[in-house]
Amino acid sequence: MIHSTLGVIIAVFFLISIISLLWWMLHVPPIIPQVAARAHREVEALKNLLIPTQGMAYSERGVELACRLGMEQNATLIFAYVIEVPRTLPLNAEMGNEDKVAQEAISHAEQLAALHKMKNKSLIVRSRSAGEEIVKLAREQEADVIVMGIRQHIGLKENILGRTSDIVLRKAPCEVIIDKLPGEEET
Amino acid sequence: MVSDNTSTPPSPELPHELRRDITVWGSYMWGYADVGADIYAALGLVIAAAQGAASLAFAAAGIVYIMIGFAYTELAATYPVAGGGHYFALRGLGDFWGFTTGVALLLDYTIDIALFAVASAGYVNFFLPYFGIEPSHFVFMLGSLKINYLWLSESFAFILFLIWLNIIGIKESSLFNELIGAFDISIESSVIVFGFLFAWKPEYLIQQWQTSFPTLHQFMYGSSLGIISFVGLESISQAAQETKRPATIIPRTSVTLIFTVFIFATAFSTLSLGVLPWQTFAQHIGDPIATLAHAIPYIGLFAGPITALLGATILLISANSGVMSASRLTYSMSEFGLITKWFDKVSPKYRTPVRTIVVFSVIGIVEMLLSFLTPQAMDTLGNMYAFGATLGYLIVFVALIRLRFSDPYTPRPYKMPLNLKIHYKDRIVDFPVLGILGFLGVGMVLFEVILTHKIGRIAGPAWVVLGIVYYIYFRKKNNMPVTKSIERNWEAHQMDVLISAEEFDLAEEYRIALKERDEKLKKHEQIKTDR
Hints:
CATH topology of chain B: Amino acid/polyamine transporter I
CATH architecture of chain A: 3-Layer(aba) Sandwich
Helix content of chain B: over 70%
Radius of gyration of chain B: 24 Å
CATH architecture of chain B: Up-down Bundle
Number of domains of chain B: 1
Largest sheet of chain B: 2 strands, antiparallel
Shape of chain A: elongated
Shape of chain B: globular
Oligomer: heterodimer
CATH class of chain B: Mainly Alpha
């Protein structure tokens, strides 16, 4: 005969606790193979992400991708806008509203970073070649990866990449991630 | 990589290693085997001391035990090698403390073998009259001492059986624990569930709480006995080098063990005081579970044989745990040059440390013989057991705190909860607040043991001092530093351990952490040079 309701509650609680503890213990997560583990940890080790931006839809997509790539490990995002100055002009020459465009592009990138609550810093620099400047910045800022979105249509059909991304891919001192959406004929 | 599990003999050029054959259930059972038996034996003692507040005494002891458990979980998952507390102290505090911890814990494991083999044989004797054998007839007189040679032979046979079982393979000895342990957990759970359903009266518990509350001294004594009943968690760490994927499995088995044992201990004590007066348990200190089971409807009829079977089996797997742990502890001590290298050998056929299994089980047999030759020997062994465990745990807490500062790069799959972030040498270190509380808690228990256990305070330290004398002799003889440590490449060792344990994710995490540290150091050097 049952003596007390409290006794029944304790007996049930006891059984549930023991069974759930053993159940949890026995369900071990699967093994991670060595190659997969290396990929997992190396991506996790990406702490400084350099994101060249131009304020266009494709480069802001690159910013968003970088935010998501660095979110888990709380990485620092370094936004860079390179103002390409023609060789016919001095580097500090008046460039119309280029400075304003740069400021706006950086501001959009910072808003995306704020949305993900991520640490970031921004750089607006002038250079003769955007590609060379991005490579130089990656070295100076000790970037672990460069993430850049590129336009869908780039000049000649046989050229997959533009001049800037081509230089970056060839000369970058770190990993490079290029994001390109399919062109209209590809869709 | 993990050792091959086939019968193909390993290459003669490679050193033979222990084989990773312990599963998640096996890892849990190595710990449960030890702790389960401790509770079985200590329930009556704690109730006799803490009276109406026995549950509270178990809970208070349980809090210290949980902190010890968390510390061991962190360390065993971080350093998944044989050796347990001795290895943690070696990594954190150096060779001397590694040896001191090892020798203190060795005391416990050899006592485990003796104490529990004898107690298990005692329970087996319960069944012999059913086969027409009366154990009390098999006695001879040695002076004024009455020695039961049947019981002695049974205990001896049990230890020989465990030696054989541990020699033929960790898989076999682990399987033995796994099967018997599952049976024991089921029986203990049945006693608790039936007891709470059909015999437990909360008003009776409250009445005992109100009328038989102990004095502070009695309560402290009770809780110090309670902590002794939780000794045994170390066995999981001792088996770490033979556990599959130890860094993943050990946190799970340790945390489960901590909480299941805590639940069992508080449930048994709460149930006992809601069914019978504490004085009844005080009169039956030797068989508290049988006393309790007798008073429970439905299972009361089978209480005698059930609890005798439970006692015999749980105590036997506890002795098995003692054989495994003593052998792995000394194997590790030998591997790191703390005791003679003769013990650092693994059988090429069975992949077990045969020499340490035999030698330290024989020490267990000597302790068993002592327990038969003098009526006080069992008490002495019990007291020394408490001293060894608490001293070992105390040093382990210091090692845990030290390692957080000295080895921050080794990945910790599990960290003790409650940490304070502090700046130390350009780094942020998680300072373990529970480590300090655990140290104080265990320190208090050690103080209680020294204060209240007359034999333990002499015999326990005497064992440790004797060990230290050997250590000084051994190190001097082999031209090794006595107070300082031997130079070792811990980073390479740690990487090998993680790779061999198939903990690739942690190995990669460790590699990247070391790479980042090296780059940082290089940059600092560069800055210094530039200046």
